[in-house]
Specification:
The chain is an alpha/beta fold. It has seven helices and ten strands.
Length: 227
């Protein structure tokens, strides 16, 4: 099996993955079988402070022998629309070459593992509450120009792609995520439009496994619910 982790973008998640840079993992993992993608990325230069690629490079990729040709970052020299199109094209080429499988339920790529973080508003990747990008079904990668969090321009995997993965892990840390975590994990929400208000509720692999990892502050509103 080729591992295709989709990189999370929070500092606490990076700290966990840094364990893989240490013995015994660094010596036992077959890094040649790893392919790295990003579920979402900010449309900024790779050396920009807001770049997820920059953070990943500094904290992880520079410390492990993953092949450069197996690291798929976005083109930061084109418009965000073109960057999204090029990213989807690169993934489609991997599917065509059979280096990346396809879901039996749809024509979406089937990544081995997608790791997501969740914002205080319940967003995952760059899929924000009640945003039109949540309803995109015919594309693998889309783009937004009006992110409620800076920077405004981003590319993001669509929900069908996320939900086609073999494994999806949602890692949530911090008390500021507690309300959204309660709505997403326990299903307790007084609104009828909870799914669009809390995109994390829409993450549900079609033919895969979903796992939530919450620290105590993030799980503080779950009460007696299992977490």
């Amino acid at each position: 099996m080729i591992w295709r982790p989709i990189w999370p973008n929070t500092s606490r998640n990076y700290q966990r993955f840094q364990k893989l840079c240490e013995a015994p993992y660094s010596m036992t993992v077959d890094w040649t079988r790893w392919y790295i993608f990003w579920t979402d990325e900010r449309a900024v230069a790779k050396n920009h402070a807001d770049s997820n690629y920059k953070t990943t490079k500094e904290r992880f990729l520079s410390k492990v022998p993953i092949l450069n040709s197996h690291v798929y970052s976005i083109n930061d020299n084109v418009t965000v629309e073109d960057a999204a199109g090029e990213y989807e094209f690169a993934i489609r080429q991997l599917v065509k070459l059979r280096k990346l499988g396809v879901s039996e339920s749809n024509d979406c790529p089937k990544f081995d593992l997608i790791i997501l973080s969740m914002g205080p508003d319940g967003h995952v990747a760059s899929l924000f509450p009640d945003h039109p990008a949540l309803r995109v079904k015919d594309e693998w990668v889309t783009f937004i120009t009006d992110s409620p969090e800076p920077p405004p321009e981003r590319i993001t995997f669509t929900l069908p792609v996320i939900n086609s993965a073999s494994n999806v892990a949602v890692v949530v840390t911090g008390e500021d995520k507690a309300t959204a975590a309660r709505a997403a994990v326990s299903g307790k929400c007084e609104r009828t439009d909870c799914s669009s208000l809390f995109p994390a509720r829409m993450v549900w692999p079609i033919d895969g496994t979903l796992a939530w990892f919450l620290d105590k502050p993030a799980a503080s509103d779950l009460g007696n619910a299992e977490h």
